[in-house]
C-alpha cells in the first residue's frame, strides 16, 4: 500500500472531508503523491518528514478527541455497568473510531519507508493499540444487533443483564472437550459452544456468528419473560433454558414420536425404566405395544443446561446453513438426529475431534459440502425436469415429495453418513423418470435389487388435472344434497302422507348413499390408475414406479375402500330389492324390511357414535395411544396417516357452534326449497308426465315413450342448488354484524364522534395499551393522570401525521395535547376540541341576565366549553404570576382572591361587568401575542405596556364599581404606578411549562375555526377515527417492552420501484401529464403541507427544487410515499421501532437503578429517539429485513435501485438488507463455475454498505418459485419468535404500530385447544382518489384477526364498478371473514411456517 492507496481509503471513509482534520490529512497525502510523481526517475523519495508529520497529526488527533479518556470511561463502564451516553455523542464517537482506524491502516502501510527509529516507535504504538484498544476494535468490527466479537461503547444492548447472562451461558466451560491449540477464536471474545461446533462439524464462520447472536437473543428474550437476572452476576434461569429448548426442538420431538424412535439424547433417561416397568402390567394390554413416546413425549431429565444449549445451537446452525433444505423440515430433523448423536459422543470425550459425517476427501471439514450439497444437487436435478412448472406433476419430485420421504421409518435406510448411491439421493435419469423401475428387470425376474434401480418418487400425492375433482373434493356435500332432494321430493309426491309406504320409498336413500360412496371410491381408484379403464392396467403399471412403500400402503387402502363400498353397495341394493319384492307381494311378514332397517340403523348409529366421540379430545388421545393392529387398521381405513395435519380437532363447544351454524343454514335452505321450489312443481310435473305423446321434430332422440322426461328435467334443473350460498351469505352478514357490534366496531364513525368521545380516550388507552410497568408508577388514578399517560402517544401520532404531510403546522398545534404534568388542577385537552369555545362562552356571558348558576349551567351543556373556561381562568393566573413580582403579583393575588370569593358566594355576575369581557380578551390576547415570540428589548417594552393596559381594563372596566374603587385607591398600587414601577419590568417566560401555556392560551383565545374542520385531510380523519375506535375493543393486556415477544418483519423485493427519480416525476406521458403534476392535483392539501414543511411557498417550481438537492430529495420521498414503492413500505415498518422506542422510554426500565424513574418527569417523551437505552431495547425486540434478491447485481451494474436502497439504509439504521451475491470461480481444470452467497448488510457510520454476514450457498437458490426462495435464503437473518410477512406494496402507521404488543399477546391467548401460531388478516379495499396501498390494524378480539390489510385494487374514482367492489369488500367480505374465524373457526389464508417462529399474516 502506498500514499495513493492511503488517500483512496481516506476518500472512501469521508468523501466530503466533513470530519475534523480530514482535509489536512488528505492535503498531506496529496503532497506525498505529488512528490512521488515528480520523481519518476527512480531516485529515493524522502518520506521521513511526511511520516513524522502524520505521526504528529495522529498524536494531536488522539488528544483532541480524548481517546485516552474514552479508554478510561470504557473501563469504568465495564466495572459499573452504567451506560448514559446519548446518541449524539455515540455517533461522534463512532466517527472518531473510524478516523483512527484509517490512520492506523495508513501508518501501517507507510511505516516501512520511515527511519528505523520512527518505524519502531510507530509499530510499537500500533501493537499496543491493537492489543489494548478494545473500544476501537469493538466499534469498527461489523455486527448485526449485539456486538459479540468485541464490546462496544456506542451500543447499550450489551449492558442489559439478560444479554450478558445469555452470553455467559454459551461460554466455554472447563468440562467441555478441549479444542486444539491452533484453533483460532475470532474477535476479542472468549471461546464458547459455537467454536466447538464450528471445529467438529465445519460450519461456516459467518453462519456461526449469525446463529450465535440468534441464540443469545433468543435466550435473553426468554429470560426477560421471567424477570431480569442480577446485574452484578447475571445468570439465566433454568426455566428459560427449558423453554427455549422445548420450543426450538418441538418439531424434532414430534417427529421422533411419529416415527416411534428414541430421541438423540434419550439414552439413559429415567423415563426409559419407568416405561419398561409400566409395560409389565398385564391390565394394560390395550397399550402393550404402546410407543415409549406416547407416555413420555420428551425426556430431558438427563440433560444438563449446557447440553441443552449445545443441542439448541446445533439445530440453529443446521437450519442456518441448510439453504433450500430448509423447505424440508423433517429432513432437517433427520440430519439433527444423527449429528446430535455424534455431538453427544464428542461431549463425552476429553478431546474434541472432527465428526466423520462432515469430513471431506481433502481432509477438511465442511457441513455444507458433505451434508447439504448432496441433497441440494438431487433437488436441483429434479427442478430441471420440472421445466419451470410446465411439466406434469408426476414428472419430477418437488419439495413436498423430498420431505415426505422422512415421514416413514424407511428414511433411516439413507444411513449416516448418507449413502450417495441411495434411492433418495440418486439423480433422475434424463428420460427414465416416468418409468421408475426398469421393465427389463421385471422380465428378468428382478435379478437385480430393486433399490439399485429405484429413484424415490412421489410420496403420497400425484396431481391429475380433471373436472372430476368437482365431485371428488365435495363428495360429502353432493351426497348430502342429492339424498335430501330425494327425500323431499318423495315427501312432496306422496302428498305429505307419512305412512309405511312412504317410509319404504324414503328408504331408497340407502342405496343412493351406498352407490354414491362407491362412485367416490371408484373415482379415487381410477384417478390413481389414470382411467380410462381400457388402458387402466397399463397406466397402473406405469404409475407404480411413482410411489414409495408408503404410497403402496395408500394404494392398498384405496383398493380396500373400493371393494368395501362395492360390496356394501351390492348388499344394500340386494336387500332393498328384496324389500320391494315383499312390498309388491304385500306380505305381512316383512323379514327383509326388518333386516334392511337393522342394517341401516346399525350403520347410522356407528357413524353417529364415532362422529360424536371423535369430537372429544380425550377420544383422540385414546386413539393415538393405542397401537393395537385392530384399532390401527380401522383408523388407517378411515384416514391415512400423515405427519402433517394429524390431530386437527377442536373443542366440543366449537364443534357445537359449527354444527348449529350450518344447521340453521340447512333448515332455512330445505324449508325454502320444499315449500317454494319442490312442492309447487309437483302438480305441473304430474300434468306434464300424463300428457299424451307430443311429436317434436327431434322426437326420435328424446321424446318417444319417456313421458316428456326432457321437459320435466328442464323444469327442475334450475332450482335447489343455487340458493345455499345465498343463505350462507345472509346468515354470515347477520352473525358477523352482531359479532361486530359486540366487539364495539364502528362506535366512532365520524370526526364528530371523535370530538364527543375524546374525553374517554385516555382511560381506554391506559386500560388496553399501557403496560403494567407504566401503570405501576401512577400514584393515584384520575383523569389527569390518564391524560398525562395518553398525551405522549397522541402527540407522537399527530407528529407522524405532520411528517407524512397529512396535516399542516397549524393543525398539528391544534391537534396536539398538553403534557398534563403541570400544576394546573384540571385536564388540558387538545385545542381542536376547545377551539372557539371561549368566544362562545363570552357570547353567553354577554347575553346573560340571570344568576351565576344559570350562566354556568348553560356553559356546562358543552363539556369542552366548561373545560376551556376553567383552563383559561387558571392559565391566566399562572402566567401573570410568572410575569410579575412585587406589587404586580399582589395585585394578581388580590384580583383572584376577590373573584374566587364571589364565585363561592354565587355573586360573580355582580362582581364583574360581563359586558367588558371582549375588551379584556382583546387586551390579554395582545399580551400573549408578544410573549409567544423570542425576547427582545423592544418586545419587552411592548409587553410591559400591554400588561399595563390589561391592568387598566381589569381594574377600571371589568370589576364592579365598589371593587374598582377599592383597588384603585390601594396605596401600594397607587404608589408603584405613580413611581413608574408597576409592571415596568416583567420576567419573560423561559420555563417550558409556562411557554407551552402561553402559546396554548393565545390559540385558545384567538382560534375561531370550528372543530369539525380539523383535520381537513380525509385520510387523517379516517386514521384518527379508526385508531380511537380500536381503543374500546377487547384485547389482551400489553406487556412491557422488555417482556414482550420479539418479532421480525420480512419483506421480499425483486426489482420494483424503490424511490421515484427526479426524471420519472417530471417526464410527461402521451397526454402531457407527469407523475408529479398528477400527485399535486389529487393530493392538493398534502402538497401544500409538504411545501410548508420544507419552508417553501406555494409558487415553488421545478427549477427551485432542482437548485436545492435536499429539497429535491424530500420531493422524491414525498411522491414515493404516495406510490407503490419500497421506500413507503420501509418507512411504515420502521414505525414499529419508533413505537417500541417511545414505549420503552416511557416505561423507564433503567440499566442500574429503577429508582431513576422518579428523578425525571415520567410522562414526557422529549428526547426518546436519542435515548440509547430505548434504541437498544427496541433493537432487542424488533428486526426488519428486506430480502432484495438481485441487489448484488444491481450494485454491480450501478442501477438506480441499488443507490436508492443504499439511501434507505442510511436513513434507517435498524434496516437490514439481505441479497444473493454471485461470484465466478475458476476450477483447477480451468472450468468456470458460479458460487452463490447469502449476504446481510447495513449502513456504516459513513453511509456505506457494511457487510455483516456472508454465508455460502450450495448453489443457485432459485429452484422453483422465486419469491419463497428469495425469502428462504434471508430468513436466517431474522430474529425473535414471530415473523410478519409484508409485501413491498404495503404501508403502516405509528398509531397502529403502538398496538403491536397487544397483537403479539394473541399468541399466548387461548382460542381453543391449541394456542394460535398464525394470526390472519382481514382485507380492506379502497378506491376513489387514493389509488395507493395501505396497511392498517384493526383489533378484533372476538375474532382471531387483528390486522387489517389493504388488498389494494388500483382503481380510479371514474369507475362505479370500483366503488361497488370497494363497498362489498368492506362489508360482506369483512363479515364473512369474521364468521370464518368464529363460529366456524376456518381460515381462508395460508401461510408458510418457520421451524421455530410463529407467523403474522401479510
Automatic annotation (TrEMBL):
Its EC number is 2.4.1.34. GO terms for molecular function: 1,3-beta-D-glucan synthase activity. The chain crosses the membrane at residues 273-294, 314-336, 477-494, 527-550, 562-579, 591-614, 658-676. Keywords: Cell membrane, Cell shape, Cell wall biogenesis/degradation, Glycosyltransferase, Membrane, Transferase, Transmembrane, Transmembrane helix. Residues 306-419 form the 1,3-beta-glucan synthase component FKS1-like domain. It comes from the Eukaryota. GO terms for cellular component: 1,3-beta-D-glucan synthase complex; plasma membrane. This is 1,3-beta-glucan synthase. One of its GO terms (biological process) is cell wall organization. Belongs to the glycosyltransferase 48 family. It is an enzyme of class 2 (transferase). Pfam families: CALS1 (PF25968), FKS1_dom1 (PF14288), Glucan_synthase (PF02364). It comes from Carnegiea gigantea. The keyword Transport does not apply. It is found in: Cell membrane. It catalyses: [(1->3)-beta-D-glucosyl](n) + UDP-alpha-D-glucose = [(1->3)-beta-D-glucosyl](n+1) + UDP + H(+). It is a multi-pass membrane protein.
Amino acid at each position: 500500500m502506498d500514499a495513493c492507496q492511503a488517500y483512496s481509503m481516506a476518500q472512501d471513509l469521508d468523501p466530503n472531508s466533513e470530519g475534523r482534520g480530514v482535509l489536512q490529512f488528505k492535503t498531506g497525502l496529496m503532497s506525498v503523491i505529488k512528490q512521488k510523481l515528480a520523481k519518476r526517475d527512480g531516485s529515493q523519495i524522502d518520506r521521513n518528514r511526511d511520516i513524522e508529520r502524520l505521526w504528529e497529526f495522529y498524536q494531536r488527533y488522539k488528544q483532541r478527541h480524548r481517546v485516552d479518556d474514552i479508554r478510561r470511561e470504557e473501563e469504568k463502564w465495564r466495572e459499573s455497568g452504567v451506560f448514559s451516553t446519548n446518541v449524539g455523542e455515540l455517533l461522534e464517537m463512532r466517527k472518531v473510531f473510524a478516523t483512527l482506524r484509517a490512520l492506523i491502516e495508513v501508518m501501517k502501510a507507510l511505516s516501512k519507508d520511515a527511519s528505523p527509529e520512527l518505524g519502531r516507535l510507530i509499530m510499537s504504538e500500533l501493537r499496543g493499540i491493537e492489543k489494548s484498544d478494545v473500544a476501537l476494535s469493538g466499534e469498527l468490527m461489523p455486527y448485526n444487533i449485539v456486538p459479540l466479537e468485541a464490546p462496544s461503547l456506542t451500543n447499550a444492548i450489551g449492558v442489559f443483564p439478560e444479554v450478558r447472562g445469555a452470553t455467559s451461558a454459551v461460554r466455554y466451560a472447563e468440562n467441555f472437550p478441549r479444542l486444539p491449540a491452533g484453533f483460532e477464536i475470532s474477535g476479542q471474545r472468549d471461546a464458547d459452544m459455537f467454536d466447538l461446533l464450528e471445529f467438529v462439524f465445519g460450519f461456516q464462520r459467518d453462519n456461526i456468528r449469525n446463529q450465535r447472536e440468534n441464540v443469545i437473543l433468543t435466550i435473553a428474550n426468554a429470560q426477560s419473560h421471567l424477570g431480569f437476572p442480577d446485574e452484578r452476576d447475571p445468570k439465566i434461569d433454568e426455566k428459560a433454558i427449558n423453554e427455549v429448548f422445548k420450543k426450538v426442538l418441538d418439531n424434532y420431538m414430534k417427529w421422533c414420536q411419529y416415527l416411534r424412535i428414541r430421541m438423540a439424547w434419550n439414552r439413559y433417561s429415567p423415563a426409559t425404566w419407568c416405561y419398561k416397568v409400566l409395560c409389565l402390567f398385564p391390565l394394560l394390554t390395550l397399550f402393550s405395544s404402546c410407543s415409549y413416546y406416547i407416555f413420555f413425549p420428551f425426556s430431558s431429565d438427563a440433560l444438563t443446561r449446557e447440553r441443552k444449549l449445545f443441542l439448541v445451537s446445533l439445530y440453529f446452525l443446521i437450519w442456518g446453513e441448510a439453504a433450500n433444505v430448509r423447505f424440508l423440515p423433517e429432513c432437517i430433523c433427520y440430519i439433527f438426529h444423527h449429528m446430535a448423536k455424534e455431538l453427544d459422543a464428542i461431549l463425552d470425550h476429553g478431546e474434541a475431534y472432527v465428526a466423520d459425517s462432515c469430513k471431506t476427501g481433502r481432509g477438511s471439514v465442511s457441513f455444507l459440502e458433505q451434508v447439504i450439497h448432496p441433497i441440494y444437487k438431487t433437488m436441483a436435478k429434479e427442478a430441471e425436469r420440472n421445466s419451470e412448472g410446465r411439466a406434469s406433476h408426476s414428472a419430477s419430485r418437488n419439495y413436498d415429495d423430498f420431505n415426505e420421504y422422512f415421514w416413514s421409518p424407511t428414511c433411516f435406510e439413507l444411513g449416516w453418513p448418507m449413502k450417495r448411491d441411495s434411492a433418495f439421493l440418486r439423480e433422475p435419469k434424463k428420460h427414465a423418470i416416468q418409468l421408475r423401475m426398469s421393465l427389463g428387470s421385471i422380465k428378468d425376474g428382478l435379478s437385480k435389487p430393486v433399490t439399485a434401480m429405484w429413484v424415490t418418487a412421489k410420496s403420497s400425492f400425484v396431481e391429475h388435472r380433471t373436472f372430476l375433482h368437482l365431485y371428488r373434493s365435495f363428495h360429502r356435500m353432493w351426497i348430502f344434497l342429492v339424498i335430501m332432494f330425494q327425500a323431499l321430493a318423495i315427501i312432496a309426491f306422496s302428498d305429505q302422507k307419512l305412512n309405511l309406504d312412504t317410509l319404504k320409498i324414503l328408504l331408497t336413500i340407502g342405496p343412493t348413499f351406498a352407490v354414491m360412496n362407491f362412485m367416490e371410491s371408484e373415482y379415487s381408484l381410477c384417478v390413481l390408475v389414470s382411467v380410462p379403464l381400457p388402458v387402466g392396467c397399463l397406466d397402473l403399471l406405469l404409475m407404480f414406479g411413482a410411489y414409495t412403500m408408503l404410497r403402496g400402503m395408500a394404494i392398498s387402502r384405496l383398493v380396500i375402500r373400493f371393494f368395501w363400498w362395492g360390496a356394501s353397495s351390492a348388499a344394500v341394493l340386494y336387500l332393498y330389492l328384496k324389500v320391494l319384492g315383499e312390498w309388491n307381494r304385500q306380505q305381512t311378514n316383512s323379514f327383509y324390511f326388518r333386516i334392511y332397517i337393522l342394517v341401516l340403523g346399525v350403520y347410522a348409529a356407528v357413524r353417529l357414535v364415532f362422529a360424536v366421540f371423535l369430537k372429544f379430545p380425550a377420544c383422540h388421545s385414546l386413539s393415538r395411544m393405542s397401537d393395537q393392529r385392530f384399532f390401527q387398521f380401522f383408523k388407517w381405513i378411515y384416514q391415512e396417516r400423515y405427519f402433517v395435519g394429524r390431530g386437527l380437532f377442536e373443542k366440543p363447544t366449537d364443534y357445537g357452534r359449527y354444527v348449529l351454524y350450518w344447521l340453521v343454514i340447512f333448515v332455512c335452505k330445505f324449508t325454502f326449497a320444499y315449500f317454494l321450489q319442490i312442492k309447487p312443481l309437483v302438480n305441473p310435473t304430474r300434468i306434464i308426465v300424463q300428457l299424451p305423446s307430443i311429436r317434436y321434430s327431434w322426437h326420435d332422440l328424446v321424446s318417444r315413450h319417456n313421458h316428456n322426461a326432457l321437459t320435466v328435467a328442464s323444469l327442475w334443473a334450475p332450482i335447489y342448488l343455487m340458493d345455499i350460498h345465498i343463505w350462507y351469505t345472509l346468515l354470515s352478514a347477520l352473525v358477523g354484524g352482531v359479532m361486530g357490534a359486540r366487539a364495539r366496531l364502528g362506535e366512532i364513525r365520524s370526526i364528530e364522534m371523535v370530538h364527543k368521545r375524546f374525553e374517554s380516550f385516555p382511560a381506554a388507552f391506559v386500560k388496553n395499551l399501557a403496560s403494567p410497568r407504566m401503570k405501576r408508577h401512577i400514584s393515584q388514578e384520575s383523569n389527569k393522570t390518564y391524560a398525562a399517560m395518553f398525551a405522549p402517544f397522541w402527540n407522537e401520532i399527530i407528529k407522524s401525521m405532520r411528517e407524512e404531510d397529512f396535516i399542516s403546522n397549524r393543525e398539528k398545534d391544534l391537534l396536539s395535547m398538553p403534557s398534563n404534568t403541570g400544576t394546573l388542577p384540571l385536564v388540558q385537552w387538545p385545542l381542536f376540541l376547545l377551539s372557539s369555545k371561549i368566544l362562545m362562552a363570552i357570547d353567553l356571558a354577554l347575553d346573560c341576565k340571570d344568576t351565576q348558576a344559570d350562566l354556568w349551567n348553560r356553559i356546562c351543556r358543552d363539556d369542552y366549553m366548561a373545560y376551556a373556561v376553567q383552563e383559561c381562568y387558571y392559565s391566566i393566573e399562572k402566567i401573570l404570576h410568572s410575569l410579575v413580582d412585587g406589587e404586580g403579583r399582589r395585585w394578581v393575588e388580590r384580583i383572584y382572591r376577590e373573584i374566587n370569593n364571589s364565585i363561592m358566594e354565587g355573586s360573580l355576575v355582580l362582581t364583574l361587568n360581563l359586558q367588558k369581557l371582549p375588551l379584556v380578551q382583546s387586551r390579554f390576547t395582545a399580551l400573549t401575542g408578544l410573549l409567544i415570540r423570542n425576547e427582545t428589548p423592544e418586545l419587552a417594552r411592548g409587553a410591559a405596556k400591554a400588561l399595563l393596559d390589561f391592568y387598566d381594563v381589569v381594574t377600571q372596566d371589568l370589576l364592579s364599581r365598589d371593587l374598582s374603587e377599592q383597588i384603585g385607591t390601594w396605596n401600594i398600587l397607587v404608589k408603584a404606578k405613580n413611581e413608574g414601577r408597576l409592571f415596568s419590568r416583567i420576567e419573560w417566560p423561559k420555563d417550558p411549562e409556562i411557554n407551552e401555556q402561553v402559546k396554548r392560551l393565545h390559540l385558545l383565545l384567538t382560534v375561531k375555526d370550528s372543530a369539525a374542520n380539523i383535520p381537513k385531510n380525509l385520510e387523517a380523519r379516517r386514521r384518527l377515527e379508526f385508531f380511537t375506535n380500536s381503543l374500546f375493543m377487547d384485547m389482551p393486556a400489553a406487556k412491557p417492552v422488555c417482556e414482550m415477544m420479539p418479532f421480525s418483519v420480512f419483506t421480499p423485493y425483486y426489482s420494483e420501484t424503490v424511490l421515484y427519480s427526479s426524471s420519472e416525476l417530471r417526464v410527461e406521458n402521451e397526454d402531457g401529464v407527469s407523475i408529479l403534476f398528477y400527485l399535486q392535483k389529487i393530493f392538493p392539501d398534502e402538497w401544500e403541507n409538504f411545501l410548508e414543511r420544507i419552508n417553501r411557498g406555494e409558487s415553488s417550481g421545478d427549477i427551485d427544487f432542482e437548485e436545492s438537492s435536499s429539497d429535491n430529495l424530500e420531493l422524491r420521498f414525498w411522491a414515493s410515499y404516495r406510490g407503490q414503492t419500497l421506500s413507503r413500505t420501509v418507512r411504515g415498518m420502521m414505525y414499529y421501532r419508533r413505537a417500541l422506542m417511545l414505549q420503552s422510554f416511557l416505561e423507564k426500565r433503567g440499566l442500574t437503578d429503577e429508582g431513576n424513574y422518579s428523578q425525571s418527569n415520567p410522562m414526557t417523551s422529549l428526547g426518546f429517539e436519542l435515548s440509547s437505552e430505548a434504541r437498544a431495547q427496541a433493537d432487542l425486540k424488533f428486526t426488519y429485513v428486506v430480502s432484495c434478491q438481485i441487489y448484488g447485481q444491481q450494485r454491480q451494474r450501478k442501477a438506480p435501485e441499488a443507490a436508492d436502497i443504499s439511501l434507505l439504509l442510511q436513513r434507517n439504521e435498524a434496516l437490514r438488507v439481505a441479497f444473493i451475491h454471485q461470484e465466478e470461480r475458476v476450477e483447477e481444470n480451468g472450468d468456470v463455475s458460479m458460487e452463490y452467497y447469502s449476504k446481510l448488510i447495513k449502513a456504516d457510520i459513513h453511509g456505506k454498505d457494511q457487510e455483516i454476514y456472508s454465508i455460502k450457498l450450495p448453489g443457485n437458490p432459485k429452484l422453483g418459485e422465486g419469491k419463497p426462495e428469495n425469502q428462504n435464503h434471508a430468513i436466517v437473518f431474522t430474529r425473535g419468535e414471530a415473523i410478519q410477512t409484508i409485501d413491498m406494496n404495503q404501508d403502516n402507521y405509528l398509531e397502529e404500530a403502538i398496538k403491536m404488543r397487544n397483537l403479539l399477546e394473541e399468541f399466548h391467548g387461548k382460542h381453543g385447544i391449541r394456542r394460535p401460531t398464525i394470526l390472519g388478516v382481514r382485507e380492506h379495499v379502497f378506491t376513489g382518489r387514493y389509488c395507493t396501498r395501505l396497511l392498517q390494524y384493526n383489533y378484533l378480539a372476538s375474532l382471531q384477526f387483528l390486522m387489517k390489510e389493504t388488498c389494494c385494487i388500483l382503481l380510479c374514482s371514474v369507475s362505479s364498478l370500483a366503488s361497488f367492489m370497494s363497498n362489498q369488500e368492506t362489508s360482506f367480505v369483512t363479515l364473512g371473514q369474521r364468521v370464518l374465524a368464529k363460529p366456524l373457526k376456518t381460515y381462508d389464508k395460508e401461510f408458510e411456517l418457520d421451524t421455530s417462529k410463529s407467523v403474522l399474516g401479510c
